[in-house]
Amino acid sequence: MADEESLAQVAYHRLEEDIVTLKLKPGEAITEARLTAELGMGRTPIREAIQRLSWEGLLTIRPRLGMVIAEINPGDFTRVMEARHSLEVLLCGAAARLASKDERKALQVCAGRMRDAAADSDVIAFLRLDKEFDEIVARAACNPFAAKAVGPLQTLSRRYWFRYLGDADLEASAQGHLELMLAIEAGNERDATSKAEGLMQHFRRQAASLVAEVEWL
Question: Residue 3's CB: how many other CB atoms inside 10 A?
Fold first, then answer.
């Protein structure tokens, strides 16, 4: 059972990244057989990954007709960020208060690698590390309910970022994550919530600017 759960997690991460980075394109039809062959895994972990991706809104399961990768609606970006905002602030504050020594160290390493990826303009590596950062914070916060609610919103945000922003603003985002990490590492809950608030406000401005630009076109 543990091996199957581990494989399901691997399958999820690989498929999620392929959807976020548009390797699996919006509107593309896929089948379980194709994913099983491409990932070299059995049906059980693939099915578990598919169910999770469906719940997160990244693909649609059509009985007897296969699956379709979700389209991208730029107008939803602002709504995604609005929903994400308060959850991120809550989790970051809790992480500053509750994170273990190992979790604080893991965040430090991750933030440093994010800065390196930004300097190299490596968008895929940066977004992969962004997910890792989010997952460490979620574990450290010890609030599985908030973590489960915010996870899909974080994934959708990364997908919008890859599609519309590319390598723009990577260094500013990396710096924001570094400052947030330092606040969490220091156990300063007030500073952590302030840094998270600032980061979310920045992302919301980006989203609003993008939507306005797309609507103008």
Answer: 8
Question: Taking the model in full, what pTM does it have?
Answer: 0.91
At 168 the pLDDT is 86
What is the band of 1 on the pLDDT scale with cuts at 50, 70, 90? very low
Contact between residue 190 and residue 92 where contact means Cβ atoms under 8 Å apart = no
pLDDT digits (tens, 9 = 90+) for 151-166: 999 999 999 999 998 8
CB neighbourhood size of 168 (10 A): 13
CATH number for domain 2-69, candidates 3.40.50.150, 3.40.190.10, 3.30.200.20, 1.10.10.10: 1.10.10.10
